[in-house]
């Protein structure tokens, strides 16, 4: 998209540049969300493409559980949480 934005910027088409930039953000965000959902829902099948070692697959599952617990703990102790931003208070 950079060449398209650069071309339109050089031509003075600022509204078109804004439109292309927004479209690029939406496309990128959509791809990221879909990729995240795919990885969360089908992580076992995806890792199966690369290994059949059950220890590796088990380690992946353990890592996901650990990661979720660390994230939940970090969310509880974040500055925003202490100010009541996340709890609505």
Can you tell me about this structure?
- The protein has five helices and no strands.
- The chain is mostly helical and 89 residues long.
- The mean pLDDT is 80.
Q: Measure the end-to-end span.
A: 42 Å
Going by helix content, strand content and strand pairing, the class is mainly alpha
Element-by-element helix/strand order: HHHHH
Q: What is the global morphology?
A: elongated
Using the CA coordinates, give the radius of gyration: 21 Å
Q: Give the number of helices.
A: 5
Largest sheet: none
Mean pLDDT, all residues: 80
- What is the percentage of strand-forming residues? under 5%
The total beta strand count reads 0
Are there runs of 5+ residues with pLDDT below 50, and where?
none
Question: What proportion of the residues is helical, as a percent range?
Answer: over 70%
């Amino acid at each position: 998209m950079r060449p398209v934005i650069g071309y339109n910027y050089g031509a003075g088409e600022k509204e078109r540049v804004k439109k292309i930039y927004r479209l690029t953000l939406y496309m990128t965000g959509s791809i990221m969300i879909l990729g995240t959902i795919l990885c969360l829902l089908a992580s076992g099948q995806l890792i199966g493409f690369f290994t059949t070692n059950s220890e590796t697959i088990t380690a992946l599952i353990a890592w996901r559980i650990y990661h979720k617990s660390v994230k939940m703990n970090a969310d509880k102790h974040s500055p925003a949480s202490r100010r009541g931003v996340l709890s609505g208070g």
